[in-house]
Design a protein that fits this description.
1 helix; alpha+beta; single chain; 51 residues
């Protein structure tokens, strides 16, 4: 089996009828970004609100 057959892109088009791109949960990097992005956003909001 060729490794290229299992390739999943990090970003895929949204299925909600828009042309927006979303993280692909089938790609390990995309899954990591899904987990890390809200954590970083919450930390940024906390730092900005504590000023």
């Amino acid at each position: 089996m060729n490794r290229d057959d299992d390739y999943e892109p990090v970003f895929i088009r949204s299925r909600w009828g828009t042309s927006n791109y979303v993280f692909n949960h089938r790609n390990p990097l995309g899954l990591a970004l899904i987990v890390i992005t809200p954590i970083v956003a919450a930390m940024a909001l906390f730092v900005l609100s504590s000023r």
